Amino acid sequence: MSPIGRRGPNEALIGQAGSRAALSTPALVLDLDRLERNIAYLADYLGKAGHGVRPVAKIHKSVAVAKLQAEAGALGQCCATLAEAEVMADAGISGVLLFSQVVTEAKITRLAALNARADGLLVAVDDAAVADRLAAAALEAGKPLRMLVDFEVGGRRTGLDEIDDALALAQHIAGLAGADYAGVQGYNGSFQREPDFAARRAEQERCTAPLAALCERLAQAGLAPEIVSGGGTGTYAIDAAAGLFTECQAGSYIFMDVNYLDTPFEPDNPHPFETALFVRTTVISARDGFAITDAGIKEFAREELDPRVASGADPATRYELVGDDMGRITVPEGTRQPGVGEALECVTPHCYGTLNLYDVYHCVRGGTLVDIWPIDARAQW
Question: Which CATH architecture has domain 11-29+272-374?
Answer without folding.
Answer: Beta Barrel (2.40)
